[in-house]
């Protein structure tokens, strides 16, 4: 699923470049991961491919040879993984020569890519950086266990990237703090020095100097809060129902192809949220999109109400729901679940984990209300914006 493809694409590329993963100084042994993945899935080639604007870079590679092994990258026109990123879901291709999406890809003739299996890799800010893929030079009907093997190695790669980004962020935060706190902390020290040097000469009470110390301390605290993301300036959601209706409108054509209706209840009054508009839209599009993907009849219902200082949104469908085995891992990344897309497409197992992460980062929650074997009902609780 895409969210404002131009802006999202630009943000994705900026995030990928800022991650430092396109170079070779990140210190992650992706090659070892691809070596193990190739053995486990019994394929000649396995890659961790990062999809840049005009190229794909192989951060990890097993089975490459010749100039390709030396350069560890190709022009974007040769990339199968770009489609995995753009589609935001696994790409399973038994024979690329017969697949209209990639049949004209020059990698088929030049590098012998015939069968392809790829899972999207999640990076910072819910952006997809590339894919973990398995490649064969012969036509291949990918078995379910092989798909799950690549899914598992994709989860490992995603976790390694998370750890790298956490280290990168911590270093950046420390560097910025040390730099920006020099000024106010230096002034506090100067004021303190005055107290020490001229304590016997200063009148009581020392209001002026106390205010100086307090002002500079407040400035330092404001810097820290800003660095920790407490002062983000982002357009907030002004009308929850309007945001839900916009998400539904975007997805109705796909729903109607499967005979599914999308209904958004009217709470009777506008409900403004503390959440950014963009975040609420992404959450609803993911949940509605999942309901469409896993259903083939009935409705998707979005019920909205305000309870005190919170807004509650229930997203319910008429699909098969989940089984008891799914519940402990429902919000885990890349977790294989019992339900399968009704249209036969593959699922990366990322949507619900992204939704949970987005909501929790903004003070919201999501829970699965329905019991095993019932149609799925997810409940979102988010803070309502207080009147200013």
Automatic annotation (TrEMBL):
Pfam families: GAF, HATPase_c. It catalyses: ATP + protein L-histidine = ADP + protein N-phospho-L-histidine. It comes from the Bacteria. GO terms for molecular function: kinase activity. The keyword Kinase applies. InterPro entries: GAF, GAF-like_dom_sf, HATPase_C_sf, HATPase_dom, His_kinase_dom, HisK_dim/P_sf, Sig_transdc_His_kin-like_C. Residues 176-386 form the Histidine kinase domain. It is an enzyme of class 2 (transferase). This is histidine kinase. The lineage of its organism: Bacteria, Pseudomonadati, Verrucomicrobiota, Verrucomicrobiia, Verrucomicrobiales.
């Amino acid at each position: 699923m895409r969210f404002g493809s131009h802006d999202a694409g630009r943000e994705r590329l900026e995030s990928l470049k800022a991650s430092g993963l396109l170079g070779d100084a990140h210190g992650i042994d992706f090659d070892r991961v691809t070596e193990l993945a190739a053995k486990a899935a019994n394929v000649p080639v396995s890659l961790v491919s990062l999809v840049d604007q005009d190229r794909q870079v192989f951060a990890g590679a097993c089975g490459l040879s010749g100039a390709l092994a030396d350069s560890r990258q190709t022009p974007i026109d040769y990339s199968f993984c770009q489609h995995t990123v753009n589609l935001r879901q696994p790409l399973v291709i038994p024979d690329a020569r017969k697949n209209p999406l990639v049949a004209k890809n020059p990698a088929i003739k030049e590098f012998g890519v015939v069968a392809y299996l790829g899972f999207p890799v999640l990076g910072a800010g819910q952006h997809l950086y590339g894919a973990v893929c398995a490649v064969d030079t012969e036509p291949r009907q990918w078995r379910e266990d092989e798909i799950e093997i690549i899914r598992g190695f994709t989860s490992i790669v995603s976790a390694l990237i998370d750890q790298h980004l956490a280290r990168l962020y911590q270093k950046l935060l420390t560097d910025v703090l040390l730099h920006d706190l020099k000024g106010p902390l230096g002034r506090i020290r100067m004021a303190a020095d005055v107290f020490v040097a001229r304590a016997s000469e200063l009148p009581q009470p020392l209001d002026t100097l106390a205010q100086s110390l307090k002002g500079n301390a407040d400035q330092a605290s404001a810097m820290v809060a800003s660095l920790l993301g407490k002062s983000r300036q982002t357009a907030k959601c002004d009308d929850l129902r309007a945001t839900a209706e916009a998400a539904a409108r975007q997805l109705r054509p796909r729903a109607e192809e499967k005979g599914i209706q999308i209904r958004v209840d009217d709470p009777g009054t506008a409900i403004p949220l503390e959440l950014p508009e963009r975040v609420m839209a992404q959450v609803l599009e993911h949940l509605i999109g999942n309901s469409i993907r896993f259903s083939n009849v009935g409705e998707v219902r979005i019920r909205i109400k305000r309870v005190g200082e919170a807004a509650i949104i229930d997203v319910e469908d008429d699909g098969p729901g989940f089984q008891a085995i799914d519940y402990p891992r429902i919000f885990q990344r890349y977790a294989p679940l019992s339900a399968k897309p009704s249209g036969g497409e593959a699922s990366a197992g990322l949507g619900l984990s992204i939704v949970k992460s987005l909501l929790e980062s903004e003070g919201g929650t999501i829970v699965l209300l329905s019991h095993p074997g019932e149609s799925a009902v997810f409940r979102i609780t988010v803070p309502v914006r207080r009147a200013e």
